[in-house]
Specification:
About 30% of the residues lie in helices and about 35% in strands. The chain is an alpha+beta fold.
Length: about 475
């Protein structure tokens, strides 16, 4: 008993996915969705819409992933459906194309020579074999697949070129499929993140923008140096990060990162996005007695390291530093003091102490946490809080990019093959009768018949000139 063969046309699922109407419908839906996703704020930008929409409507749209459209499940399903439709359409029609590609018509056909114009009929004299050899020699300049045949006393020569142009449309299909696959890979496995790296330090993970979670890179990236140049009006002209990429303790790559000049390492692309400054580990302090009579030379101290008070009456340390405490009080340092008698104090000291006293009269004196004289008999002053630059990087990974680039490269070849390459067959017949000998030139083409007519005219003129 023979196993029944699978009938593609009788299978409803196959018929559904090989439909051109489905292709058009999916393309229209994807185009409309892309326009909608372009006009509607996505991801973090969509937060501003929460103030304008009702909470229920905003939650409903968020549940449909409208604000993260290009990563939504239903958008990926649309791309996947288009990819399946493209593959099945190609398979369904490939048999006919392959049959046309393999077809080898006999050179000895009379139909192509019917109703040809007089300028392609050339009177000839001499030996038919020599004339045929001359024709073959002319055709070899442009045609590779040349066959000759003698039938009913006439010599037939057939030349072909452009046979592979039948597969041009499949190159287009393949390119679109690669672009779709690249888009899916980027949507599923890619990520967008950011990271701030202080000058001289390294990081091994980044913060994902979408989920606000940390993602390890699998390597370390270090900011060796950061520099910024300013215009005369104070606006930044250029900021540059000198980066090193490390695997273990070994530096495997280095490069300069500038705006619009990203660096890609191990498939992860780094963009120069922003910069800023953060307080360093060293603080410049001055300690004075309560009568201001004995002032200590400014001390450079390190954070979280104890130092003795004057006259060894205890110790102090800088617990924390802040570049702008509470967003309005400027640079500050949190001091913790341990006295010899067991008395302790913890308070903030400010670099702009005098200005803050004028701005907020009495605030520091009545709030021990803000009073630099909270540990008598000393008053602490913050002379300077040296800061270090940090570089703000946008970090992206899209594993689908190579597929997209390959798709664009192949689509150029496919479109050229589809619209500019033509499968041409040229027939030449040499025959002798009572009226003498004649040579006829005819041909067929899969597309662009106007170009074929010009080609046949040029070929006839070339053969005529060679036989004279």
């Amino acid at each position: 008993m023979t196993k029944p063969e699978f009938n593609k046309k009788s299978n409803p699922l196959w018929a559904f996915f090989c439909s051109v109407k489905l292709t058009i419908a999916l393309l229209i839906i994807l185009a409309a969705t892309s326009v909608f996703g372009t006009l509607l704020p996505q991801q973090q930008d969509a937060i501003h819409l929460a103030e304008k929409l009702s909470p229920s409507l905003f939650q409903a749209l968020s549940a449909l992933q409208v604000f993260d459209l290009y990563h939504s499940l239903w958008f990926r399903l649309l791309i996947g459906a288009l990819a399946v439709n493209l593959v099945i359409c190609s398979i369904d029609r490939f048999g006919v194309t392959l049959k046309r590609f393999r077809a080898r018509p006999s050179p000895g056909r009379s139909k192509p020579f019917q109703d040809i114009p007089p300028e392609r009929i050339i009177p000839v004299e001499g030996n038919a074999d020599e004339i045929s050899a001359c024709v073959v020699d002319v055709l070899k300049g442009k045609y590779r697949d040349i066959r000759a045949e003698t039938s009913e006393g006439a010599h037939f020569i057939l030349g072909e070129k452009g046979r592979y142009s039948h597969f041009g449309v499949y190159l287009v299909h393949l390119s679109v499929l690669l672009i779709l696959v690249g888009g899916l890979l980027g949507s599923i496995f890619g990520f967008e993140a950011y990271v701030n790296i202080e000058e001289g330090t390294a990081v091994e993970s980044v913060a994902l923008r979408k989920m606000r979670t940390s993602r390890p890179l699998g390597f370390a990236v270090r900011c060796d140096e950061f520099s910024v140049d300013f215009y005369d009006n104070g606006a930044p002209r250029e900021f540059r990060s000198e980066l090193s990429f490390l695997e273990g303790e070994n530096v495997v790559h280095q490069g300069s990162l500038l705006v619009n000049h990203p660096i890609t390492f191990r498939g992860v692309t780094f963009y120069q996005s922003s910069y800023g400054s953060v307080p360093g580990d060293r603080v410049l302090l001055r300690i004075a007695g309560v009568d201001q009579g004995t002032q200590v030379t400014p001390l450079e101290v390190e954070r979280r390291k104890p130092y003795p008070l004057p006259e060894n009456e205890g110790s102090f340390q800088v617990v924390e530093v802040n570049g702008n405490l509470m967003g309005m009080m400027g640079p500050a340092a949190l001091i913790a003091v341990d006295g010899m008698q067991g008395n302790q104090a913890s308070f903030w000291v400010f670099r702009d102490h005098a200005a803050l006293q004028k701005r907020f009269p009495g605030m520091m004196e009545h709030n021990p946490r803000l009073n630099p004289s909270a540990f008598a008999p000393y008053t602490f002053y913050l002379e300077d809080l040296p800061s270090n630059y940090y570089t703000g990087l946008q970090v992206n990974q899209d594993p689908g990019v190579p597929f997209v680039w390959a798709g664009f490269f192949i689509i150029v070849i496919g479109l050229f093959a589809t619209f500019f390459w033509s499968h041409q067959r040229i027939w030449v017949r040499v025959s002798f009768g009572k009226q003498g000998g004649e040579l006829r030139v005819a041909g067929t083409a899969s597309k662009n018949p106007v170009a074929l007519e010009r080609e046949l005219d040029r070929l006839a003129q070339t053969i005529r000139a060679r036989l004279m």
